[in-house]
Amino acid sequence: MSSETHPTASDSAPEGRGWRTQLHTVIFEADTAAGRAFDLLLIALIAVSVLVVSVETVPGLSARAYAMLRALEWGLTVLFTIEYVLRLIAVRRPVVYAASFYGLVDLAAILPTWISLVVPGAGVLMVVRVLRMLRVFRVLKLTRYLAEAQTIGVALRASQRKIAVFLFAVATAVVIVGSVMFVVEGPEHGFTSIPASMYWAVVTLTTVGYGDIAPRTGLGQALASLVMILGYGIIAVPTGIVTSELALAARAPVALNTQQCVSCGADSHADDATYCRRCGAPL
Prior knowledge:
Layout: H1 9-12, H2 15-28, H3 33-56, H4 63-90, H5 94-98, H6 101-115, H7 136-139, H8 143-185, H9 194-205, H10 218-250
């Protein structure tokens, strides 16, 4: 018998693929000790970053304190930039990951600071980094919450056409009511134009009622009363649509795991899934 051994799949794999797989495990997989530690550290840094941006806007800071906060902000931004690049390297389809929800959030978390070099004040937009903390549900293995989030997403997607038709009807009503109020009240009562009258219609229809524009004539007040009553009914419509779809989506719950695709970085896969729900790569 020959003592020659056949190479295993890991032996025959390119060297680059091995370190990329390890990098993916650390960055994307919360099921491992290294991945969990990395994600918990990342969440802590994100929290510190949001706190720094918030404190920077407080008036009365000394020049030294402001300089320290700016230095910390830039240090965190550099770390997040390196992390974003490593995420693109770790997946086999970086373009797919970059276009995903978390990919766009990760990019939006670092862009404001770099843009602030050209556009002063853009750095305050870094508070979008707080969205990255949505990963806490995966890191802490709160898969129950992932399933509930998916249920809400399914309900919202199922409701979007109905809500779109509803919003179109509301927009039409706003145009009509605004035009009528412009004719009835006129500029002498604050309804200086149809757009201004449409603004009043939106404020009244949503029951906000700022009071900066108000009808003075009897006919205008009667029309305003009808719009107010209609507003209460309108508020209930989208709520009912989404609630109905939520009830339907909740009848077919899906068990999810925390595994992420090595190809595109997608997560929230079903427990029994063997292929990625987004790109079809093996899990």
